[in-house]
């Protein structure tokens, strides 16, 4: 499983890079707009925090393939390693083919059906991003869509990965992990929840109390050897 963080907030990214086995950061136009700064500053700021090894995904906004490709080129002048997110519209699919031909890595985004994902993979997208919670919210089945995309990748031996996105709770992340999604991108608040369990907290508190009763408050293994 590849974990990515779905945010452009530098404090949240710093925290996640420090704590978690994070392999990338994804953004979308809404996430970028929340930061209310020039896009160049946002991309450079994130790259500085995540380093050269982790992935950074940023989305184009144009309505035509031609504009999308020019946006991708311009963003990659700021960050040459950038992975370009493109929505699965007809013009988006055309842009994916053009970007693939230029050797640019692509994430197909705003995926709500397995057929959109299949078409995007055939057009050269490396990551396929189904929106799990947005489907669940309209009485759809986001996990099933992610699972069917994973199945299609396997059946047709496609050179693509599911990048499941749009989560509002831990159970949704767990369900897509079981369904074989290779990658997830998760907002910081849900990411933190992945490790939460009251019995873990009470277990650790119990170990601390037993230890400190013998070895003293605030001591560690280093003090007791
Ligand atoms: C990532 O690719 C998506 O843009 C994102 O996960 C959407 O999440 P939301 O449905 O919470 O806006």
From TrEMBL:
One of its GO terms (biological process) is carbohydrate metabolic process. Pfam families: TAL_FSA. It comes from the Bacteria. Keywords: Cytoplasm, Schiff base. It is found in: Cytoplasm. It catalyses: beta-D-fructose 6-phosphate = dihydroxyacetone + D-glyceraldehyde 3-phosphate. GO terms for cellular component: cytoplasm. The keyword Cytoplasm applies. One of its GO terms (molecular function) is fructose 6-phosphate aldolase activity. InterPro entries: Aldolase_TIM, TAL/FSA, Transaldolase_AS, TSA/FSA_arc/bac. The keyword Cytoplasm applies. Belongs to the transaldolase family. Type 3A subfamily. This is Fructose-6-phosphate aldolase.
């Amino acid at each position: 499983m590849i974990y990515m963080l779905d945010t452009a907030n530098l404090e949240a990214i710093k925290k996640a890079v420090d704590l978690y086995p994070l392999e990338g950061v994804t953004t979308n136009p809404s996430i970028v707009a929340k930061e209310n700064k020039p896009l160049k500053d946002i991309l450079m700021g994130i790259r500085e925090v995540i380093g050269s090894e982790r992935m950074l995904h940023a989305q184009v906004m144009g309505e035509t393939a031609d504009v999308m490709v020019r946006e991708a080129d311009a963003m990659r002048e700021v960050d040459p390693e950038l992975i370009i997110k493109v929505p699965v519209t007809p013009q988006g699919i055309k842009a994916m083919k053009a970007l693939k031909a230029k050797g640019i890595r692509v994430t197909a985004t705003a995926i709500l059906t397995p057929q959109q994902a299949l078409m995007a993979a055939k057009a050269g997208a490396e990551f396929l991003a189904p929106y799990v919670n947005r489907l669940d919210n309209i009485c759809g089945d986001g996990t099933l869509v992610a699972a069917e995309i994973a199945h299609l990748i396997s059946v047709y031996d496609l050179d693509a990965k599911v990048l499941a996105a749009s989560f509002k709770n831990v159970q949704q992340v767990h369900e897509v992990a079981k369904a074989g999604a290779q990658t997830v991108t998760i907002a910081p608040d849900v990411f933190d929840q992945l490790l939460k369990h009251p019995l873990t907290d009470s277990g650790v508190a119990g170990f601390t109390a037993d230890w400190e009763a013998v070895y003293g408050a605030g001591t560690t293994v280093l003090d007791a050897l």
